[in-house]
Amino acid sequence: MFEEPVLFDARPDGIAVITLNRPDTRNCLARDVRAGLFDAWARFEDDPALRVAVLTGTGQAFCAGGDLKEMVETGMSVPPRDMFPVPYDTVALSKPTIAAVNGVAFAGGWMIAQACDLCVASTTASFAITEVKVGRSSPWAAPLIHMIPQRIMMEILLTGKPIDARRAYEIGLVNRLAEPEDLLPAALDLAREVSAGAPLSVRAARETVMLATEMGRSAALQAARHASTHCYRSSDAQEGPLAFADKRAPRWTGT
Coiled coil: which residue ranges (predicted)? Predict the structure, then answer.
């Protein structure tokens, strides 16, 4: 058994790398992994020096889903609302997250990868919503309709059959593909691209995307304008144009 179920690496470049570390159980969401992941997300959110988080796994799997043995032992019916550490759902986060899917992302593994803002996948990764295979359900998949076409979503949920990384990229579930040895560097490159932006602008941009998926056009426009006010009034909003005029890199303060 590995020492820690979830590893946390706070890098000096402002990127947190969170790693599911139970390869012997394909990083399934057992109690210790869930607790470790809740703690890791909280640590990321509470550290002002950290701008973006990358979530990945050790071994051949990203995450194989929930712990079916636990479900049998406890006679679990409807999972408790706060059982799983799902970004922006059961976990309050205000900063961007990237899933670096290194292998199997099935059921709950798909769930946490889907919940992240962006996804980079290894060419050897595979994705599946397998709940129909084990008599469970996947209400958490509802937001998927904003990511992929309805017919494709329907087939994925009704059949439970896996799709490979290339197909996940083609349908828009995955942002970028990388060879296995290049997966983490590719995810870190994407994280650096995101963190290069002004912090308040990045936050407002993320909120704009989420508002646009949750509201009608007019309501989303109004809410997005409100969400952007703090950004427009920040010192960084003055620093950006000044740096451009001075032909230098901006010095973001997040204020």
Answer: none
Q: Are strands 6-10 and 15-20 parallel, antiparallel or unpaired?
A: antiparallel
pLDDT digits (tens, 9 = 90+) for 103-141: 999 999 999 999 999 999 999 999 999 998 888 888 999
Q: Which of 3, 73, 131, 179 is catalytic?
A: 131
Average pLDDT, the chain: 92
Per the domain annotation, does 1 fall within a domain?
A: no
Tell me which residue range forms the domain holding 242: 199-246
Same domain, 133 and 103: yes
220-241 burial, b for 16+ CB within 10 Å, e for fewer?
beebbeebbeebeebebeebbe
Q: Which residue stretches of the chain have pLDDT < 70?
A: 1-2, 76, 220
Cα–Cα distance measured from residue 231 to residue 240, given in angstroms and rounded to the nearest whole number: 12
Same-domain pairing of 178 and 225 = no
pTM as predicted: 0.89
Q: Is 80 left (phi over 0), alpha (psi -120 to 50) or beta?
A: beta
Annotated catalytic residue 193: no
| 234 and 187 both lie in a single domain | no
Is residue 121 located within the same domain as residue 215? no
188 & 235 share domain: no
CB burial class (10 A; 0-12, 13-18, 19+) of residue 190? buried
- The answer to whether residue 133 is domain-embedded is yes
Structural domains of the chain, count: 2
Q: Is residue 251 part of a domain?
A: no
Phi-psi region of 75 (alpha: psi -120 to 50; beta: other; left: phi over 0): left
